[in-house]
Amino acid sequence: MSTMSETVESTSDELTRNNVMRHQYRVLNEAEKTDMALVKDMGLELHAFLDALGQNRELLLAKTKVEEAVMWAVKHITG
Q1: HSE-up of 37 (CA within 13 Å, CB side)?
Q2: CA–CA separation, 55 vs 12, rounded Å?
Q3: Which of 24, 42, 41 has its CA nearest to residue 78?
Q4: Residue 69 CB coordination number (10 Å)
Q5: Contact 7, 18 (CB under 8 A)
Q6: 30-61 pLDDT, tens per residue?
Q7: CA distance 59 to 49
Q8: What is the C-alpha to C-alpha distance for residues 51 and 19, in angstroms, rounded to an integer?
Q9: What b/e readout covers 16-48, taking b as 16+ CB neighbours within 10 angstroms?
Q10: Are 25 and 78 in contact (CB under 8 A)?
Q11: CB of 36 within 8 A of CB of 70?
C-alpha cells in the first residue's frame, strides 16, 4: 500500500501510486504534460507574487482562487 510520503511527478504515468481517490488515469501525451506543467508553474508564480504583497483576507482569498483555478485547469487537461 502506498503512503502519502511517497511522491510522484504530476506529469508521471505513475500517478495512481500516491492517490487515494482517483485510481485510474488516462496516459497524457507530451503536449498535455507540457500544458499541465505550464498551468502549475504559472499558478505558482502568481501565488508567490500575491504572497509577496502581504497577508490579509483579500490576498488569502486570491491565493485560494489561484489554487482553485489551477485545479480546474489541470482537471480539464487530464479529464
Answers
A1: 11
A2: 34
A3: 24
A4: 14
A5: yes
A6: 999 999 999 999 999 999 999 999 999 999 99
A7: 10
A8: 28
A9: eeeeeeeeeeeebeeeebebbeebbeebeebbe
A10: yes
A11: no
Domain boundaries, the chain: 28-78
Beta strands in the chain (DSSP E): none
DSSP 8-state assignment for residue 15: G
Contact yes or no for 47/67 (Cβ under 8 A): yes
Place of cell 500517478: 15
Q: Grid coordinates in use for 28?
A: 497524457
What digits encode the pLDDT tens for the residues 1-34? 444 556 667 777 776 665 666 667 778 899 999 9
- One-letter amino acid at 21 equals M
